[in-house]
């Protein structure tokens, strides 16, 4: 009978030890992580000589304004200074807004209108719209590495 009373005590000790490990892990996790895992992606500098390109917006897929919409694939970058931490953080935080600006502007064109539109005019308009939402810095110019219209 003595052996049977020892098993609940051992199980209680194991349960208390597991509870302590879980509590310690939770406290450690809260105190050691200063930022959320859902934070927006940070700017990704790409070496190009001395220039750093912001590529955080990624590839954007946009439907045109046609009755049978075409698909536009756009990947744009711009030069920024990664040493300017506050501007870099603002850029990262504005990625969803940049994507919406691109989608709204490019999506307002038909495929034919986009084919006839000058790339420099499109870049200029997007640049104007991007800079209108930025508070801590300015983008000087945009670069398209991909701009395809798929019908």
Quickly give the CATH architecture of the largest domain: 2-Layer Sandwich
Q: Quaternary status of these chains?
A: single chain
CATH topology of the largest domain: Tetrahydropterin Synthase, Chain A
Proportion of residues in helical segments = 40-55%
Number of domains: 2
Strand content: 15-25%
Secondary-structure-derived class: alpha+beta
Based on DSSP secondary structure assignment, what is the total number of beta strands?
Answer: 5
What is the mean predicted local confidence, pLDDT? 83
What is the N-to-C succession of helices and strands?
Answer: HEEEEHHHHE
Describe the structure.
The longest helix is centred in the N-terminal third of the chain and has 31 residues. Strands 1, 2, 3, 4 and 5 form a five-stranded antiparallel sheet that branches. About 11% of the residues have low confidence. By secondary structure, the protein is α+β, with helices and mostly antiparallel strands. The protein contains five helices and five strands. The chain has two domains: 34 residues; 104 residues, 2-Layer Sandwich (Tetrahydropterin Synthase, Chain A), CATH 3.30.479.30. A hairpin with a 2-residue loop joins strand 1 and strand 2.
Q: Tags for this entry?
A:
151 residues; 2 domains; alpha+beta; five-stranded antiparallel beta sheet
